[in-house]
Amino acid sequence: MVLDSVLSSPHRRSPSFRKSFPNELGSWSTLMQRHRFLLTALVLLTFLCTIYLYFAVTLGSSSSCFGLTGTQKAQCQLELAKTSIAKGKLKIL
Q: Where are the bilayer-spanning segments (predicted)?
């Protein structure tokens, strides 16, 4: 069988094969060196997402129609549009 030949492969039992990969993950410093680019990209992405979420939360929910649903929300948005047009400002909601 194929499985028997794989299990009895000389590479599986060879001590020289084991010596070539003493520790698959290595130490923390080796892991950091190998994945420095990915870790840097992850830190940068986390920083940018934090900034984006900060501004999305602080600037996004300033509408007075926040929390309303259905026809109440539609009426509130209509009133806001009327006041925006009356002031000369066209704001797309």
A: 37-55
Cβ distance 91 to 79 under 8 Å?
Answer: no
pLDDT in tens, 15-39: 555 555 555 667 888 888 889 999 9
User: Residue 45 sits in which domain range?
Assistant: 2-62
The model's pTM: 0.42
- 17 — phi, psi (to 5°)? -70, -40
Whether 11 and 42 map to the same domain: the answer is: yes
Total domain count for the chain?
2
12 or 60, which is more confident: 60
Separation of alpha carbons 75 and 91, rounded Å: 16
Furthest-apart CA pair in the chain: how many Å?
Answer: 85
